[in-house]
UniProtKB/TrEMBL annotation:
Keyword annotations from UniProtKB, A to Z: Signal
Signal peptide residues on this chain, from the entry's feature table: 1-21
Entry protein name: DUF4340 domain-containing protein
Organism listed in the record: Blautia hominis
Biased composition (Polar residues): 397-407
Biased amino acid composition, Acidic residues: 25-45, 422-433
Record carries keyword DNA repair: no
Entry annotated with the keyword Signal: yes
Start and end residues of each stretch annotated as Disordered: 19-47, 397-433
């Protein structure tokens, strides 16, 4: 009996002989699991998504990057091909008419596809492969691992609304619709950026960039002399009897269209560089953005000289004024002006032939100067108020030999305007407090 007890004690001693006191077991919240292989791959990918690229600080330069590659709009389609993109429609047969574009075209690369706009910025028909990429749509999604960056250190998918407005300033337009906040930055005609944010976290996730403006050629020889066409221009001082003379009093000053840009700057308008071409090639048109007293005029210009000229020596071929966007006083033939009643306007038009075009908002009266209907005056009458709400004049003759001479210099009596711009509200509408 005693022997059995001794044997049991000896066995127990042997089983416990190697044991030493242990540290207490850790609490569950102190336990850290090693990342599995999938998590390690995701973290590695996140590190790889940081791309150090050099971009302009100005959105108006229309630069952006896709991963490590920097692009600028517009750029030749060939430059995109050199960067690894393909365009299925570029088969050497399809062509694009001069100064026209195709929206929503698809470029493909190993990393995925992009929706772009193909633009022919030349003055003659071109094969698609010879055209430009003038627009692009960038969108940060869960399915797209590419990194998109914009000027001013703005990154799609992470930058906030406040960071964007701090980098680019206040937008031309901003509004909220459904689940999105939309910001629009305009830099003249055919030069615009639309940025879209999620309404909940205000994170930028989509950018639609369009710049259909021809890149400037540094090798282009620019005339240093004032062209004869500019020197021969005579500013009118009154409205002639001929409505086809395209004389307008714009912002209180008389012009005969086409009118040199320098005539506008002489009257206090300032050229905004971000929205304007610096030079205009011979026989071609360009774009200018003018600002005065907080109002902006976007205009098309023509160069009638036989050499490239600086913007100041090109000719504005159209002006526009209304009660909504371009709030500049406009007065034309026989004193027809913004705010005038439709009845009075028609009486002043007299026997001049016109065509009408009706929309839900009102009626446009078109007075055409040619059968092709390229040169015209448009007067828009509000449907409900029966008042002139918009006036637009556009005239681009082939030459200026007869268009710029013999304008009247004495100002006759004109019909008193029903409303001119200043601090007054639109007739018939309540002024907002």
């Amino acid at each position: 009996m005693n022997k059995k007890i001794c044997m049991v004690c000896l066995l127990a001693a042997l089983l416990t002989a190697g044991c030493t006191p242990q540290d207490p077991m850790p609490d569950e919240e102190d336990v850290v699991n090693l990342p599995d292989e999938e998590q390690q791959e995701e973290e590695t990918e996140d590190v790889q998504k940081e791309y150090d690229v050099e971009l302009s600080d100005k959105l108006s330069d229309f630069q952006f990057s896709v991963n490590e590659t920097v692009y600028t709009l517009p750029a030749r389609l060939q430059a995109w091909k050199n960067a690894g993109w393909t365009y299925e429609k570029d088969n050497g047969k399809k062509a694009l008419d001069p100064e026209s574009f195709l929206e929503g075209e698809i470029l493909e690369s190993e990393g995925g596809s992009l929706a772009v706009d193909i633009v022919n910025l030349d003055g003659e028909k071109k094969l698609l492969g010879e055209c430009y990429v003038g627009g692009v749509q960038l969108e940060s999604t869960e399915d797209d691992s590419r990194v998109y960056q914009l000027p001013g250190k703005i990154r799609m998918g992470t930058s906030t609304l406040d960071e964007v407005t701090e980098a680019y300033g206040m937008p031309t337009d901003q509004y909220e619709e459904k689940d999105n906040i939309y910001l629009t930055y305009e830099y003249g005609i055919y030069k615009q950026a639309d940025l879209v944010f999620d309404v909940q976290d205000e994170i930028l996730y989509k950018a639609v960039l369009k710049n259909y403006r021809e890149p400037e050629d540094g090798s282009e020889e620019v005339s240093k002399e004032t062209p004869a066409e500019v020197e021969n221009y005579q500013a009118p001082g009154a409205f002639p009897d001929d409505i086809m003379a395209f004389v307008v009093r714009y912002g209180g000053d008389f012009y005969k269209l086409p009118a040199p840009v320098c005539e506008f700057t002489k009257n206090g308008w300032k050229i905004l560089e971000d929205g304007s071409d610096s030079i205009v090639k011979s026989g071609r048109h360009g774009y200018v953005t003018l600002e005065r007293d907080g109002q902006t005029l976007y205009a098309v210009v023509n160069n009638y000289a036989d050499m490239a000229v600086p913007m100041e020596n090109s000719f504005i071929i159209s002006v526009h004024g209304d009660f909504d966007v371009t709030k500049v006083s406009v007065e034309m033939y026989r004193g027809i002006t913004l705010g005038m009643s439709e009845e009075t306007m028609k009486a002043l038009l007299g026997d001049n032939a016109y065509e009408t075009e009706e929309t839900d908002r009102g009626v446009s009266y078109f007075i055409y100067a040619d059968e092709e209907k390229q040169n015209y005056t448009r007067i828009f009458v509000d449907k409900d108020l029966k008042l002139v709400r918009e006036i637009e004049l556009s005239n681009s003759p082939d030459t200026l030999s007869a268009a710029s001479m013999g304008t009247p210099q004495e100002e006759p009596d004109s019909v008193e305007a029903a409303a001119m711009y200043g601090d007054d509200e639109f007739p018939g509408e309540e002024k907002e407090e």
